[in-house]
Automatic annotation (TrEMBL):
Residues 87-159 form the UBR-type domain. This is Putative E3 ubiquitin-protein ligase UBR7. It comes from Silurus meridionalis. One of its GO terms (molecular function) is ubiquitin protein ligase activity. GO terms for cellular component: cytoplasm.
Length: 453
């Protein structure tokens, strides 16, 4: 079983499946089970399409589909988790700019005080507990072991203050999301819908509850929900100039779910709605400054005279506006176009949204930082296969390579029959294959085998 152990332990570092993550420890059964998963991953011979079973049976998918989905989930998890330390409690770092957070429903259930824990504490202090994954939050300090947890102490950093007054909590910490106050995933929700995080309140909302049509390539954009837009009205002015133009769905008898694109004609101050090949002009009430356009110009001249150029006032004086309804989506780089003059900075601070002026506050910046850190760590980590091979002599190395090539070829030939006949590979089939392998192995005259110890 030594061959199995070495290759399982090597490929375990590349595949996220929990079965592979369990390193080989000497059990023949465990080694065989894990090795089949590894070898199937290596071969990846299986046809890429989904196969429909006979009527009345469940629909099955190919292994390639499973692997691709698993890889996508691993990449998403790495993007979120790589930027946080999985070994040390983040409490000593203070209010961390952005980190992966969890809430423990076992220790702080609904009805008590909301609390959040860091990634490391979710592993070390709350293993086996019911946890709510909160994705990432900004400016948060780990609560694990403080007075909200009763007599429980943090195993990683017990010397904590009673409370973290700078933390902000929401219904997310009780496993509830969106304006509908529902959990995610929601077992009672039969509608397939994505959830999008507001970059201001950091709540997650269903696409159908945003009050607008979700644009394409939404993963490349940031969203601010309507509630947060109304709490900081100056964002509506920026939205008219910087945000993704709104798209509205209109229900018609002859064409359901038709899209109406709203454009703004600055000269005539009208909305131009495109319905199919027709254009319909609708009068628009244009919002101007308190004293009209002339008042805006005077205020702009005063700021220029003081030596400060205000982008916000320039946008405001242009007279361009948009319907103040629904969530707003912002393209990449929009934060760099916000005005950062002293007056506007103070307005952002008073509105509690000063973080919008910081481009490194974005989730994308956090994820990129995590990816960079992970790549650097992987580069520094010694290849486990090379480490194993370096401890073997030349004859043993050749035997391992020979064993590997034989197993790969035989497994591929064995599974190819299932693909040719359109059959689903079952766990019993895999076990049968390895029973045959073991039987052949016992019949070999060569007794030079390696064993896991």
């Amino acid at each position: 079983m030594g061959f199995y152990c070495i290759f399982v332990n090597y490929f375990a570092s590349f595949f996220p499946h929990q079965m592979v993550k369990r390193k080989c420890s000497g059990s023949d059964t465990v080694c065989v089970c894990m090795c089949v998963y590894v070898c199937v991953c290596i071969c990846v011979y299986v046809s890429t399409g989904s196969s429909m079973a006979a009527e009345g049976e469940e629909v099955t998918v190919s292994l390639v589909d499973v692997l691709e989905e698993d890889e996508e989930l691993e990449q998403e998890a790495s993007a979120v988790l790589a930027g946080s330390d999985s070994e040390k409690c983040s409490y000593p770092e203070g209010y961390v700019k952005r980190q992966a957070l969890y809430a423990c429903n076992t220790c702080t259930p609904k009805g008590g005080e909301a609390a959040g824990i860091c990634l490391a504490c979710s592993y070390k202090c709350h293993e086996g507990h019911e946890l709510f994954e909160l994705y990432t939050k900004r400016n948060f300090r780990c609560d694990c072991g403080n007075e909200k947890f009763g007599e429980m102490e943090c195993r990683l950093f017990p010397e904590k203050e009673k409370t973290n007054c700078g933390n902000q909590y929401s219904h997310n910490f009780y496993g509830l999301y969106c304006t509908c106050e529902r959990p995610y995933p929601d077992p009672e929700d039969e509608v397939a819908d994505e959830m999008i995080q507001c970059v201001v309140c950091e709540d997650w909302l269903h696409g159908r509850h945003l009050g607008c049509v979700v644009p394409e390539c939404v993963e490349l954009q940031e969203m601010i929900c309507e509630s947060c837009m109304n709490k900081c009205p100056l964002l509506w002015t920026y939205a008219a100039h910087l945000a993704v133009p709104p798209t509205v769905k209109v229900c018609k008898e002859e064409e359901e779910n038709a899209r109406v694109e709203v454009e703004h004609d600055d000269e005539n101050k009208t909305e131009v709605k495109k319905e199919g090949n027709e254009k319909v002009e609708v009068c628009e009430k244009v919002e101007v400054c308190e004293n009209g356009t002339a008042g805006c110009k005077r205020k702009l001249q005063e700021l220029e005279a003081e030596g400060s150029r205000c982008r916000f006032e320039e946008m405001k004086c242009s007279g361009k506006s948009r319907v103040q309804q629904g969530a707003v989506f912002w393209p990449a780089g929009w934060r760099s176009k916000l005005c950062s003059c002293q007056h506007c900075k103070s307005v952002f601070v008073e509105g509690g949204v000063s973080f919008l002026l910081d481009e490194m506050d974005t989730v994308l910046a956090y994820e990129n930082k995590g990816k960079t850190t992970e790549q650097a760590t992987v580069g520094e980590t010694r290849d486990p296969l090379m480490s194993a091979l370096n401890n073997l002599n030349h004859v043993q190395q050749l035997e391992i390579i020979h064993e590997y090539n034989d197993m790969k070829t035989e497994l591929k030939d064995y599974l190819q029959r299932f693909a040719a006949e359109g059959k689903v590979v079952t766990p019993e089939d895999i076990r049968h294959f390895f029973e045959q392998q073991q039987s052949r192995k016992r019949r070999r005259a060569d007794a030079g085998q390696f064993y896991c110890t």
